[in-house]
Amino acid sequence: MDIIVCIKQVPGTNKAEVDPVTGVIKRDSADSKMNPYDLFALETALKLREQKGGTVTVLSMGPPQAQDIIREAYSMGADKGVLLTDRRVAGSDVLATSLAISESIKAIGHFDLILCGKQTTDGDTAQVGPEVAEMLGIPSAAGILEILEAGESITARMDMPTTIEMIKVELPCLLSVEKDIHVPRLPSYLKKKASANREIKMLSLDDLSDRDESKYGLNGSPTQVKRIFPPPVNDSREMWTGSGEELADKIYNELSELKFVGGGL
Q: Which domains does the chain have, with CATH numbers?
């Protein structure tokens, strides 16, 4: 079974810089990590390969530094890695991103199954996976809790808002998995050393079948971010000294002033 896992590099801190003009995160300057939800998709792919054989290819889209998460995937056991990196696709919304990812999958070639995490921590739309499947013309399902059987089709348990449903999806297909499906394995130092010189295939817009620049990046995004900003950080503090009785009175009075408790001493 040949599996493609879509992974993304996301900010590893809530202090990422934001371009004041475009409203897009400056990913070149941000501390980054693999999107946590994608780790569950990768672990699912690795377990399926252990059961059925085949290959696991990770696919990402981002700046050149996104090679770091592909190297991380190698150290967990992924066989191949592909990175679409081109400034002409920078700033893509979910629609333009889905087109870029689906075109990259076409460039990779044969696959039986595509796995995605449920969403990303920087966008939280949970739309890219289903949109990629739509553009590829294959069936998809989201909220996958468990894969029960995998052969010419996938039988799985799917989390719905009020029920758990059993589904059967013919291959090739795309599944977006929940974080409860598997516990991701830790990267292996031995695999990291063994894959240190393994190739990462680099793609640009020129390698895709649809090279119309108006469909990608900010130009190809029908939705625009009006404003984006990191959450406020409240790390102010003060030190109090005194006897236990004095500190107790001070804490009580402070809580009373903040309306957490009523009355005063």
A: 2-215 (3.40.50.620), 235-265 (no CATH)
